[in-house]
Design goal:
617 residues, alpha/beta, Fumarase C, Chain B, domain 1, Rossmann fold, 7-stranded parallel sheet, 6-stranded parallel sheet, 17 strands, disordered C terminus
């Protein structure tokens, strides 16, 4: 029996099985894909199993997340292991170089220009923080101790010593047993070589844990995608004039206008191919890119600007030069500007990186269907595991309302009124706040105007994170409000709702992507790569994943109780409900409204032996 480095006395339901499954896959030097609902304890299970095996076999563990905010739980788990086993476990929380830069002269520059300016200062010997780090002997014990609490503490301690915090974290990473980092450190082609060099080794001696792995392919594709507009080219030209440069960008503006004239006479968007571009844009970019970078740095230095259109243009030109067959070039026109976009259809080159580690552990609460993700990750021989929720089934009910639809051809005032009427009926039966998520802001606003509820809390398009936070604060002190948001947005995916402040979730419609050249090209590309599954992988399932993500917002622990309603006729279609049912048990009821009333009744709670937690304002 394996003695795991596990911080708790005993594992939760299904967590012990997950520990064993991961360890066995590592022992076989194989990767594993895990779909595990909220509450199982994925972070603890994956880290404990991976760390136990890594310690036995002289391997390093990388714990990667899509967002920095998700580092915290890994830090807590590793500190728990240190405390319980009194071990000198070494780990470091690494974030991007700019977030750890203590040089106020450059740390506010836009990301694409910051790295070039940083390299320039280091090479010229003008970064005092880097020099001070290099001149320092052994790492002060205080910094090691602070680093165990996360990158913010590491940053503060490094700043106290006046040394480069990024170099400090890199030095620690070389000796660390576990490195917590972002997806970009491994997936982004522009940062991966430097990152691997800093952690002292290749990926072949590393176990990588990919947290929230359902994001992996889209994030990888984003590193190969970019766009430029005639407006941005004009801003870049203004930057050149401001530093007295003789570089002329007018030909780029001319080329985009000529392409639009040729290809957009009757269409709003069109594909562009290598042969459509002049030779100076496809064969001599190296000279252009280098010159634009130098000019961008000069502009930033002289004007003290935080961002540069020149730097953006140089990065775009570099990607344009690669002419990857998996990247579509699309020209479009709108808002008084012409746009040339590089859209990655599937990130083949980046996905190949997943073959390099000793093993991968991919995990998410929405890694479904597992077979699709095995294909997308290029892991056809990997183990797959699907665990059921550890939360009591009696605490959640889910139904389909097939009386309405948001299908484009059916959208009308009468349909919006019918949806609003059904939402009001649901709310009258729910004792608490009701979150409603729509496929778009257009549908949200169309329905919202017919909802008779003055206290509703509504997400607006383009809302800042601070404004979203204010919405959540309002929700915290409410006990009977609608919360209106969109599927795929921050309210439906990126937010936890504590203390059961959401009593019901209604998912209105299906958030399918709008038809476009990019979507059509992506479906066609994946059709060829995945044997006719392009529409399923690029169109249908991504929409259903958003639905499943939203439906899980209300129940975040074993005491939460909530009702879920999938409101659209299409949820009765087997193509859709079969995917949803793999994550949420959907009940059939001739009148689900009465069933919801029953679910929230005092008698029902007593019969189940459960007690609804009181909300704390």
């Amino acid at each position: 029996m394996v003695e795991y480095l596990f911080r708790f006395d005993k594992p939760r339901m299904h967590q012990g099985k997950m520990l064993d499954d991961i360890y066995k896959s590592l022992k076989a030097k194989g990767s594993i894909l895990i779909n595990a609902p909220t509450g199982i304890g994925k972070t603890d299970a994956s880290l404990s199993a991976a760390l136990t095996f890594a310690m036995e076999n002289n391997l390093k563990v990388l714990f990667l997340t899509p967002k920095i905010s998700q580092h915290r739980i890994a830090i807590e788990a590793l500190n728990g292991i240190r405390d319980k086993f009194s071990t000198d476990l070494k780990f470091v929380d690494m974030v991007g170089k700019q977030k750890l830069c203590i040089n106020d002269g450059i740390n506010m520059i836009a990301n694409e220009a910051f790295h070039k300016e940083c390299e320039k200062l280091v090479r010229s010997g003008k970064c005092e923080f880097y020099k001070r780090f290099k001149d320092m002997g052994d790492m002060p014990k205080e910094i090691w101790e602070q680093a165990l609490l996360g990158h913010n503490k590491l940053f503060a301690a490094s700043k106290d010593y006046g040394i480069c915090a990024y170099e400090v974290s890199s030095a620690m990473a070389r000796d660390a047993d576990v490195v917590i980092a972002d997806y970009s450190h491994v997936l982004n082609p522009s940062t991966r070589p430097a990152f691997l060099k800093r952690i002292a080794g290749t990926l072949s001696n590393t176990i990588i844990i990919w947290d929230e792995a359902h994001n992996l392919v889209n994030l990888a594709a984003s590193y190969m995608s970019d766009s430029i507009t005639t407006r941005a080219i004009q801003r870049a030209a203004e930057e050149l004039r401001s530093i007295g440069s003789t570089v002329d960008l007018s030909y780029l503006d001319f080329v985009l206008n000529k392409l639009a004239e040729t290809h957009l006479a009757k269409e709003s968007e069109a594909f562009i191919y290598k042969g459509d571009l002049p030779e100076e844009m496809t064969n001599t970019q190296a000279d252009i890119v280098g010159q634009l970078e130098r000019n961008a740095l000069e502009y930033i230095e002289k004007s003290k600007a935080r961002r540069s259109s020149l730097m953006h243009l140089s990065n775009f030109m570099r990607k344009l030069a690669e002419d990857d067959p998996a990247v579509a070039k699309i020209i479009s026109k709108g808002n008084g500007s012409i746009r040339l976009a590089l859209s990655c259809l599937y990130p083949d080159r980046i996905i190949d990186v997943l073959k390099e580690p000793y093993a991968n552990i991919f995990m998410s609460a929405t890694l479904i269907p597992l077979g699709m993700y095995s294909d997308l990750f290029g892991m056809g021989t990997a183990e797959t595991r699907n665990y059921t929720s550890p939360f009591p089934e009696r605490n959640r009910v889910a139904y389909v309302d097939d009386k309405v639809t948001t299908k484009y051809a059916s959208r009308s005032i009468s349909e919006y009124k019918a949806i609003a009427d059904r939402l009001m009926k649901i709310k009258s039966r729910v004792k608490g706040n009701v979150a409603v998520f729509f496929p778009s802001f257009q549908v949200l606003n169309g329905v919202r105007r017919y909802v008779n509820d003055a206290d509703s809390i509504t997400q607006r398009e383009g809302m800042s994170s601070a404004a979203v936070e204010e919405l959540l604060n309002r929700l915290q002190v409410s006990d009977s409000s609608f919360l209106f948001g969109v599927l795929g947005g921050s309210l439906s995916e990126g937010v936890d709702y504590p203390k059961n402040i959401i009593k019901a979730v209604v998912v209105v419609g299906l958030p399918f992507a709008k038809p476009s050249l990019e979507l059509g090209a992506k479906v066609a590309y994946m059709d060829g790569k995945f044997k006719g599954k392009g529409e399923e992988y690029a169109y249908r399932i991504p929409a259903l994943i958003k639905v499943i993500q939203a439906s899980g917002r209300a129940i975040r622990n074993e005491n939460d109780r909530a009702a879920i309603v999938f409101m659209d006729k299409r949820y009765k279609w087997s193509t859709y409900i079969s995917i949803i049912a793999s994550a949420v048990k959907v009940s059939s009821s001739s009148d689900y409204l009465d069933s919801i009333s029953e679910f929230f009744s005092e008698e029902k709670r007593k019969r189940d032996g459960t007690v609804e937690r009181q909300m704390t304002p």
